[in-house]
Design brief:
By secondary structure, the chain is an alpha/beta fold. It is 46% helix and 14% strand. The strands form 2 sheets. A 6-stranded mixed sheet has the order 3-4-5-2-1-6. Helix 1 packs across helix 2. The radius of gyration is 33 Å and the shape is flat. It starts with 12 loop residues before the first helix and ends in a 5-residue tail after the last helix. The relative contact order is 0.09. The N terminus and C terminus are likely disordered.
């Protein structure tokens, strides 16, 4: 609470704010004077309180590099650029200019680099922004950051704060912001394609389209509820309904306001809600493609002890990630590596050999292996090609002992193919006839023979699981998207129940469904409904 000044002349505004922010001074009469200025510590807080913070950070990553990009955003960006370059005139917006960068406190040269000025709202954040492209040595970067931090009103940015400001100023929605984060962390071509598509707003536009459909339906429903006693609205509603029914008799979709007064059902709104419910349901039934592509397909190498599981892991990642030993039961814990196979992300786990162990430590390893097997998106079942039965039924039984989840895709890897002699032909024949088996590949981790065929099978399964990120409608990429969409569908289903008895409760379900869609993109507002009401209906009052 600010100090109350009563019965005495009010001091200058700067002194009052100075007293409130810093606690210096006393609530006593003060002769107004143009020289009564806040102290330096208060000046920085005054700038932040009146105009908002100006933030700065290194945008090009840390560590030694050829060029480092330091970005500022906020109302102090213009002054910061002028102070560090020593020139009152700024370069034209979005045009790089060569400048000598100095410490504004001492005048000492810090570097000679390129600067660029972005005047809001034509910038990434929508605010005034500046960028300094300097040499990427640690001393240069730290010197420029220290100089920026010494200026009043500037502070280091929090993680993700530039993107947060862009969202708050409407430069991008939440899905686009998430796509930007995914693009920065993308490690494979497929991840890059999906993230770029989401960052450019395709997913957000899809959800916004659904939200607009709900807004339209809700507006017609609420207008009918709120203004049904108004004769002008009643005539407008009925005339639109009759015209729509005449124009779309072949389509079979009535106008949202085609029902007569007193009815508890608006056929067009009901049809719109049912169609939207089905569309969102189809969107959810995508096999988690977007999430798998974003986080990586979890593949588990499973099999009995000493069949070459760890050797397979090392062969695929081309380094000794797991210990290999002829002693059975060497692997006790889960060893996990991230790979790029055919442009798709793969998180591969080597697990303990599956058997009835007696050692307590190995028992724990087997238990973890079975848990990981149940959570897998893809299973690489490894068997010893020289030891498995050569008839189809026996081969299928050997695979069944591993107990892979029946609904999880599986690739059967018959390792140690270099040890096959006379039984090679019979075993290959058993893999193609009789007992149904998953895709089979013969491999020798010792010689590398069969690796290309295994990688081709892996790439095919990954493409099937993740899909093509550039085709069809954009995929779900975040678990929060799925959560809100499922809650949206639940609200639409409740609308169907409530619309038979109470239109007020039915409208509330549409509002709730719309709120869940808005929570995905960050657009939640009630003014949109009012805009539709007064645009589509001649209320006249």
């Amino acid at each position: 609470m600010c100090t109350v000044w009563s019965g005495i002349p009010a001091p200058p505004l700067s002194h009052r704010i100075h007293t409130h922010l810093c606690g210096w001074g006393a609530p006593q009469p003060c002769t107004p004077s143009p020289c009564c200025l806040p102290c330096p510590r208060c000046a920085q807080r005054l700038c932040s309180a009146a105009w908002g913070d100006t933030i700065f950070a290194v945008s090009s990553g840390h560590g030694r590099c050829g060029v480092a990009v330091i970005r500022t955003s906020g109302p102090g960006s213009r002054g910061a650029l002028q102070s560090l370059t020593g020139r009152p005139a700024l370069p034209p917006p979005r045009v790089l200019a060569l400048r000598r960068i100095r410490d504004p406190a001492t005048g000492e040269p810090l570097d000679r680099g390129l600067v660029v000025w972005f005047q809001g709202p034509q910038s990434f954040t929508g605010e005034d922004c500046a960028e300094l492209h300097v040499h990427g040595g640690p001393a240069v970067v730290s010197g420029v950051l220290r100089a920026l931090g010494s200026l009043p009103g500037l502070r280091p940015a929090e993680p993700g704060e530039f993107t947060r400001r862009a969202f708050r100023r409407g430069k991008l929605d939440l899905t686009a912001a998430e796509g930007l984060g995914d693009l920065i962390h993308a490690e494979t071509e497929a991840q890059r394609r999906q993230a770029l598509r989401q960052m450019e707003g395709e997913l957000g536009r899809l959800y916004q389209c659904w939200s607009n459909t709900l807004t339209q339906a809700l507006a017609h429903l609420e207008a009918y509820i709120d203004f049904s006693e108004d004769d002008n609205v009643e005539e407008e509603v009925l005339s639109q309904g009759e015209e729509s029914q005449g124009n779309e008799a072949g389509a079979g979709t009535p106008h949202p306001c085609s029902s007569q007064r007193g009815s508890w059902s608006l056929p067009a709104v009901d049809a719109t809600v049912r169609a939207l419910e089905q569309e969102i349901g189809s969107h959810l039934q995508d096999g988690r493609r977007g999430e798998l592509l974003r986080g990586g397909v979890r593949a588990v190498i499973a099999g009995p002890p000493n069949v070459g599981k760890s050797s397979l892991l090392n062969l695929l990642c081309q380094r000794p990630a797991a210990i290999v030993s002829p002693v059975a039961g060497t692997t006790r814990d889960v060893v996990e590596v991230a790979l790029n196979v055919g442009g798709y992300p793969l998180v591969l786990s080597d697990t303990a050999g599956l058997r009835d162990a007696t050692d307590p430590v190995e028992q724990e390893g087997v238990s973890r292996a079975r848990d990981r097997l149940q959570e897998a998106d893809l299973v690489l079942a490894v068997l010893d090609a020289a030891a498995v039965p050569t008839e189809p039924v026996g081969l299928g039984a050997a695979l069944g002992l591993l107990q892979p989840p029946p609904t999880t895709p599986c690739i059967l890897v018959l390792n140690k193919a270099d040890l096959l002699e006379g039984n090679g032909g019979a075993l290959r024949a058993a893999c193609t006839q009789g007992h149904p088996l998953p895709p089979v590949t013969f491999l020798s981790c010792k010689t590398g023979e069969g690796l290309d065929h295994l990688l081709a099978l892996l790439a095919r399964e990954l493409a099937r699981l993740c899909g093509d990120p550039l085709s069809g409608s954009p995929s779900l990429t975040q678990s929060r998207h799925s959560l809100h969409l499922r809650q949206c569908i639940a609200a639409l289903a409740r609308y169907g129940q409530e619309s038979r008895s109470d239109l007020g409760l039915a409208a509330e379900q549409l509002r709730l469904a719309r709120r869940h869609l808005g929570s995905i993109t960050g657009h939640v507002s009630t003014e949109d409904v009012l805009d539709i009401i007064f645009r589509d209906f001649c209320v006249g009052k």
